[in-house]
């Protein structure tokens, strides 16, 4: 590797690794130390390894902060698409490029329990983290609890600021609890803040049809605005079929013979 080629690579690494030696000083050191091309190759390999490790650590941190379980990570690779037709498979895989986030399009997933909604939502969230984007996973009842605590402690603004910093907010199991009027207003404000960002999306999973969502909130005006914002240009996915849960279950029958 020539000194000129090395300096091009070095210039890319300066900011990423916060290297204290500017390119001109590095060039002077190379000339003064009579560094060989082989030695430049080794230094370049070391810097490349450091960058890779830093990126790996950053991605791991994003995944940890996202609250998406990582013990058995949900990914696009292990999402069951065996029974999908070609069109549905392409539509699922199209979510992987995350272009809907920059377009500020939300994703609504509705279907019976165990049909893969949460898996796919987590897969998208993990993909976000792998692309250095902030994702956050929370169940609807947990969000209700956060809203409740924030109202009691009078720090709702802090909570809303925290939720709005994410590029991809996953709200799982919509329909497992009901929001009161104050919680509904906070929910509307969190949706509003994310929708006003340059890029950002919300995914909601539910086993209840949209027509049933009215009973989950306690403020008609806010509910109407919230649903309008959520469904405006949204990608709506309907899941059907039998539950995938329990497919790895082992069934054992014990037949005890009577003792004579």
Task: Based on the model shown, name its key terms.
2 domains; alpha/beta; single chain; Rossmann fold; 5 strands; 5-stranded parallel sheet; 260 residues
In total, the number of domains comes to 2
Strand percent estimate: 5-15%
The CATH homologous superfamily name of the largest domain equals P-loop containing nucleotide triphosphate hydrolases
Report mean pLDDT, rounded to a whole number.
Answer: 87
Tell me about the biggest sheet?
A: 5 strands, parallel
The CATH topology of the largest domain corresponds to Rossmann fold
What does this structure look like?
By secondary structure, the protein is an alpha/beta fold. It folds into two domains: 3-63, no CATH class; 86-238, Rossmann fold (3-Layer(aba) Sandwich), CATH 3.40.50. The protein is built from ten helices and five strands. The protein has helices at 3-17, 23-33, 37-66, 86-94, 99-102, 117-130, 140-153, 156-164, 181-195, 220-231, and strands spanning 107-110, 135-139, 168-174, 201-206, 235-238. A five-stranded parallel beta sheet has the order 2-3-4-1-5, with helices on both faces. α1 packs parallel to α3 (37-66), α3 (37-66) runs antiparallel to α6 (117-130) and α8 runs parallel beside α9. It is elongated. The termini are far apart.
């Amino acid at each position: 590797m020539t000194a000129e080629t090395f300096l091009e690579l070095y210039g890319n690494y300066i900011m990423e690794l916060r290297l204290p030696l500017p390119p001109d000083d590095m060039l002077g050191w190379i000339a003064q130390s009579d560094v060989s091309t082989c030695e430049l190759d080794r230094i370049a390999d070391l810097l490349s390894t450091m960058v890779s490790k830093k990126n790996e650590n950053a991605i791991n941190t994003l995944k940890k902060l996202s609250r998406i379980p990582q013990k058995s990570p949900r990914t696009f690779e292990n999402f069951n698409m065996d029974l999908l037709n070609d069109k549905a498979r392409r539509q699922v895989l199209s979510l992987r490029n995350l272009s809907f986030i920059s377009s500020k399009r939300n994703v609504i997933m509705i279907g019976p329990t165990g049909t893969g909604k949460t898996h796919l939502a987590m897969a998208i969230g993990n993909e976000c983290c792998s692309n250095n984007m902030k994702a956050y996973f929370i169940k609807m009842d947990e969000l209700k609890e956060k809203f409740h605590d924030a109202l009691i402690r009078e720090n709702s603004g802090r909570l809303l600021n925290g939720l709005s910093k994410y590029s991809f907010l996953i709200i799982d199991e919509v329909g497992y609890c009901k929001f009161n009027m104050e919680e509904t207003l906070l929910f509307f404000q969190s949706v509003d803040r994310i929708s006003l960002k340059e890029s950002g999306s919300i995914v909601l999973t539910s086993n209840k049809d949209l027509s049933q969502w009215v009973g989950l909130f306690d403020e008609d005006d806010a509910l109407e605005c919230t649903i309008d914002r959520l469904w405006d240009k949204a990608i709506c996915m309907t899941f059907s079929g039998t539950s995938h849960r329990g497919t790895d279950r082992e069934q054992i029958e014990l037949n005890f013979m009577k003792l004579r």
